[in-house]
Amino acid sequence: MLKKQHIFSLLASAVLATASTITCETAASTSAVASEKAAKATTVADWLAHSSATDWRELDAENTLYLELPTGRVIIELASDFAPKHISNIKALVREGFYQNIPIVRVQDNYVVQWNEPDGVTPKALKQAKRNIAAEFSVKLPANFAFTPLADRDGYAPQTGHVNGFAMAIDPSNNNGWLTHCYGAVGIGRDNDADSGSGTSMYVVTGHAPRHLDRNITLVGTVRQGMALLSTLSRGQGAMGFYSSADQYTVIKDITLAADMPPAQRTALQVLRTDTATFKGVVEAQRNRGGDWYQHPAGYIEVCNVRVPVRETPVN
Question: What is the pTM of this model?
Fold first, then answer.
């Protein structure tokens, strides 16, 4: 129903905008005018080109991880509002050096890249960090939660949208919210026990959004830069994409917290704020892709098809 209302709204706007020049046209010609206007819709590039400095926010160094691979840096932003206990534990693991030389043990095609201690090795000793944390599949949302909803229907949740640059879903009946398994989402590996994860095993979604995992695994953030370094890794040939031998692993040099590094060694990135008119325009441009190439704009978008723009911080 929301989708239909949205379409009707677009058509009505097109008709009003051209009312001064339309006098005796038939319904067919009115539709043609509306279609022509839709085809000339503002693009994402146009919206970003006209964005202001206040439309963007810097990554928070206290919630930014640098995953260092032999091929380069993957930048992960943590969503502390959604999984505070797991994120606190991940920071403890980082500061204890747990992730130094941890291998990527699984690369499943069109699914995930996963890293953890391989089976059969002696587990690393932990100091303040824990091996098990109670699951944080969803959170109770505060009354002032800055949620920017999508108008389109979602098959996995009552409503979806964004907060602070993160794709999420909510259930208005109980005011619960959770992050969604979109491309680039970062999650916590676990066993059958819901409370068996902690950050010692983590994964990144590298394929078609596996939304069936929503509210079954704790998500802690999203990759903001460097996805190509993960999505191009050699696929594991074992069951579920696990590598069959250690010589196939890609070893992570380390994972560090940006706040623990000198500013000169950080990567300065900005994320488009999702509570702005510019972001809403970006969403509409992705929902109704126009121009000469598109013959049939979808007039629809789901949360994992919305790409939240990220850019290098401009140098003044």
Answer: 0.86
